[in-house]
Amino acid sequence: MQLSEKAAYVKRLIEGLELDPGDKQAKVFKNIAELLCEMTDEIRELEQCYDDVCDQVDGISEDLAGVEDLLSNDEPGICYDDLDSSDDMAYEVTCPTCGETSYINEDALLEGVIKCPACGEMLELGYVEDELDDTDDSKEASE
């Protein structure tokens, strides 16, 4: 039996006693029965609000999980922050201090210095200009 059914049952029991309406005890019982019915209605509304809030929290949680997936890396130590777009060519850089691997784009490589996203160490990048040119030529030839 649900709460509202129990309150209605108690109200019917009190009404079934056929108490004198002018009697003080009858007034008390009648007011208790009305109070139970009102409390039951309030509880029902609160339960509905609670269910709505739970649904909203679940939705927010799912949205947050999606954002976390977008922001997190699949592999520890890989930083995609330096990549401007998915069309940029990525170069792998391993920090000699912490051993973490990061990926940078060509612009960052040409700057010659980057900050390791894992430990904050400044990394000087040494590269040979011909290697970049060979990569660009092979890239153009394949297009």
Protein model, in words:
Mean pLDDT is 79; it is low at 82-86 and 138-143. The protein is mainly alpha-helical. It has a two-stranded antiparallel sheet. Strands 3-4 form a two-stranded antiparallel ribbon. Helix 1 runs antiparallel to helix 2 (24-71). The protein is built from 4 helices and 4 strands.
Average pLDDT confidence is 79
Continuous helix count: 4
Strand content: 5-15%
Quantity of strands, as a count:
4
Largest sheet: 2 strands, antiparallel
Strand order of the largest sheet: 1-2
Low-confidence stretches: 82-86, 138-143
What class would the helix/strand composition place it in? mainly alpha
The rough form would be described as rod-shaped
Name the helicity range: 55-70%
Task: Give the radius of gyration.
Answer: 35 Å
